[in-house]
Amino acid sequence: MSSKLNKPVKMRRTESEISGLMDMFDKGGMRVKDFCELHNISDATFYNWRKKYPPIKTAPSEGFIEIISSLPARDLPEERLFAKVGDICLYQPVGPDYLKSLLA
Length: 104
Prior knowledge:
- It comes from Chitinophaga filiformis.
- By secondary structure, the chain is mainly alpha-helical.
- It folds into two domains: 12-52; 60-104, no CATH class.
- 38% of the residues lie in helices and 6% in strands.
- The protein contains four helices and two strands, in the order H-H-H-E-E-H.
- It has a two-stranded antiparallel ribbon.
- A hairpin with a 2-residue loop joins strand 1 and strand 2.
- It is rod-shaped, with a radius of gyration of 26 Å.
């Protein structure tokens, strides 16, 4: 009897197929082991693909920017300064519409 019948068939995938599978994994929330079994790939192959096709990081939502205080803590007024952008001092968190109106 031949043992060739029990060997799994190796399958070559294109870059777009691999990229699609990696995107599907990122959006799916499955464990690596379950994902690999479902798509008939080894764990090692999955991790090699992950190195070559890392997850795509999404940009922060439009309309928000990070504001960092440029003053050292010792130079802050008695009221705690939340943030300073140019000549604008903020002493509490504010919404994006308020910021837009200040910068307009």
